[in-house]
Amino acid sequence: MVGHTCELQGGAATIPVMQQAMTVLHAKPVPQASALPLGRIPPHEVALSSADSLWRVESCDSIRDPIHVPIHDSSTATEFATSPQQGWLLTHAVSGERRLCDSPDKVVQVTEFQAIADLVSRHPHVLTLHAALLGRDDRGVIVVGPQQSGKSTLATALWRQGWSLLGDDVAVINAAGVSAEAAPRRVSLRSGSRPLLGEELWQRITSTPSFMPTAEGCLFHPAEIDGPPAVRHPRLVAVVFLARRGVQIGPAEWRSINPAEALLSLAPYSNVVLQGGMAEAFERLQPLANHVPAFDLGRGPLEDMIAAITRHVHLS
Amino acid sequence: MARFKQSGDVQSSAVGDRVVLFHRRTQKSIVLNPTGASLWNALATPMTAADLAGCLLAAHAELTPDRAASDVAAYLEQLSEQELVAVDA
Question: What pTM was estimated for this model as a whole?
Answer without folding.
Answer: 0.78
